[in-house]
Amino acid sequence: MRTPPDTSHDARNAVDRTAPPGAGPKRVWALPGGPGCAAHARGVLGDALASLGVRPDTVADARLMVSELATNAHQHACDYGPHELWLYPAPGELRCAVFDAYVNARLPGYSWTSGDCGRGLSIVRELSGGRWGMLRTSSRLGSPVQGKAVWFAVAVPESLVHAASP
């Protein structure tokens, strides 16, 4: 039985069930553990989007958003590998996700009083125009491991969506 998508504005615990069954990332990269995780994700995603012809300002936004997601994966799920970076087409957009095996984690809430922490997902929400969320799923590299993928989408012309498809 399929659960309807969470339509609330609070994505902290939302589970995205809008992807069609069997849909998944078309490009997958392993992310290294440690503090270099975010830099690696920024570089890989930036190169992939640029090679597809995505506009430079969209690439810059995507690099910032993936940096936030990879940093969260390193800080909050460092012991829950594997960590993966996914890129896949959806109608009118490209979705990027960072996977980790911390399956029971909830997305942290946002707080202006939390010091240097807690603002990253607000950046993702803002830059993605609210097109982001979390999907409970399995890893794609090696043996499947249960976990979650936190994703965001960037709007691109339909021709680029088709270029990203196999």
Tell me about this structure:
With 166 residues, this protein is of the alpha+beta class. It has a single domain (11-17, 27-164), classed as Histidine kinase-like ATPase, C-terminal domain (Heat Shock Protein 90), CATH 3.30.565. Helices cover 32% and strands 22% of the residues. It has 4 helices and 5 strands. The chain has helices at 37-52, 56-77, 120-127, 158-164, and strands spanning 27-30, 84-90, 93-100, 132-138, 146-155. It has a 5-stranded antiparallel β-sheet with strand order 1-2-3-5-4. The longest helix is centred in the middle third of the chain and has 22 residues, at 56-77. The radius of gyration is 15 Å and the shape is globular. The protein starts with 26 loop residues before the first strand and ends with a helix.
Average pLDDT level: 80
Give start-end ranges of low-pLDDT stretches: 1-22
Q: Under the CATH scheme, which architecture would be assigned?
A: 2-Layer Sandwich
What is the CATH topology classification name? Answer: Heat Shock Protein 90
Structural class from helices and strands?
A: alpha+beta
Q: According to CATH, what is the class?
A: Alpha Beta
Summarize the helix and strand pattern as letters.
EHHEEHEEH
Largest sheet: 5 strands, antiparallel
* CATH homologous superfamily label: Histidine kinase-like ATPase, C-terminal domain
The fraction of residues in strands falls at: 15-25%
Helix content: 25-40%
Counted beta strands: 5
Placed side by side, the strands forming the largest sheet appear as 1-2-3-5-4
Tally of helical runs: 4
End-to-end C-alpha gap? 29 Å
The tally of structural domains comes to: 1
